[in-house]
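Sharing a chain and its predicted structure for anyone who wants a worked example. Both blocks are below, sequence first, tokens second.
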Amino acid sequence: MLRSRFFSVVMGASLALAPGMQAASYFSDLTKSASRNLANLAQFTAGKTTNILKTLKEHKYKTLGAVSAIIAFNAYCRYTYTKKELRWDWDKIDTNKVKFPTNFRFGTATSEYQISGSETCKNSNWSEFEVAHNLERSGAACKGWDNAIADIALLKELGVSDYRFSVDWSRIEPQQGEFDEAALQHYVDLCDALLKEGITPMVTLHHFVHPSWFDKLGGFEVTENNKLFVRFCSKVFEKLGKRVPLWCTINEPTVYIFQGYMRGEFPPGESGIAGMKKAGRVLRNMLDAHIDVYQALKKLPGGEQAQIGFAHSYLQFEKFHTGTSPVKAVVEHSVAATLSSFLNDTTINYFTTGKFNFSVPGVVHEESFNHLAMRSLDWVGINYYAHVFLRLHHRLKDSLHPGYRPGDVATDMPYGMYAEGLYRAIQHMAQLKVPMYVTENGLADAKDDRRDLWIRRYIYAASRAVEDGYDLRGFYYWSLMNNFEWAEGYKMKFGLFDVDRTTQKRTLYKGSQAYVDTIKNVRQAQKKSK
């Protein structure tokens, strides 16, 4: 457990750095916000590290007490977050040599709003947020709603066995208590068409988007509103339960609260102290909403057979400097270790102990216990893209930068390729002791000159985790096609297929062939081994 004073100042850093992001669309925001919030970061140890550095400077590294304090403090951080930066020698690795069990699921993923846009998902929190905050308009996006059945041909071309997609609450329940049967039937037809082609659907019930009326009632800020989400989920399950074996209740709760209540990048667009005061309650309510939905669906016909989980966004922070700059390394490692622990362990601890603790002293304190938490998770999804280096400079306004080290393979986002991080994320999330799925992984690559390498390395990392005994059961690439990437708009190209938004033509990227070939080779090897 982190000491409260130390934790409170690091939380100031976390407001700037945000957790792992859906489709990694928010890493670019890290650079801008990190510089704005370095005044907090400079004091992240509640004065302890600042005082240590000051003492070292004044006494020219001769103060035994200060040196001892640094050693002890660094050891403390290593104790709280012991996962070291793992690096494999890729020159000695054949990424074609991967092996998975016969029931391993290869899939891809989308969300309704991102492929269908505000023209389809009207009267939603995001359709209104785009206008109110003058963001790039999602418009018709990829016309995913209209092309839902036709796009199954893309899945067949890839050779995937599974497809993760979200249902749009604002379309299904446009007014409180009024359900659109035609919208529900749309998803029934989609599931039937998928199953006919031998593709298993995974349904996400909340992927950042909900009806405007739900927002006006306070959304997840109001605990009593969870019952409205449960009612919606139950309605969907009654229609799709017999067709869908895997259910994802909520996509990335931590991203939702950090982006919506601490940084103002998501609806409802709150930030600062006012937003922070609500953030803990919203996160608790969202995690409890998962529990409530889990318990409700299990009681419905077919519920016992359904496998229900949620998708957690996993982001690692690392120190940039090493032994050549020991003081900077201590500071960077201390911040990185704390952020990584907080952003991941808060959720892990809740579902392993039932204890929820979200505390920023003097601002917000949310603490609760839910005995059902330990019995409300059949599987957990890991959304993983990359890690972020924290680099300390001598200029305070410029002193913390996310990024990657020289020599790393860059992406179109400000982070580098790091497949080893996926392996580490799987290791860490294994504490939940439930089956795991990589529910999102992919990169932005407009030139299509790194997609092949990314796919091969990250699939290798997943294979290695399986080989080492971790209960990983599937890999879903983000995304099926280029789409609306929230704050990034249409700039970042995460799709396996490019989309001409004028003609709506879908074209498989050359680099995406690596995913097609990998799936094909794995399946052929499985047949030979029988």
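Comments welcome. Residues 326-353 form the longest helix (28 residues).
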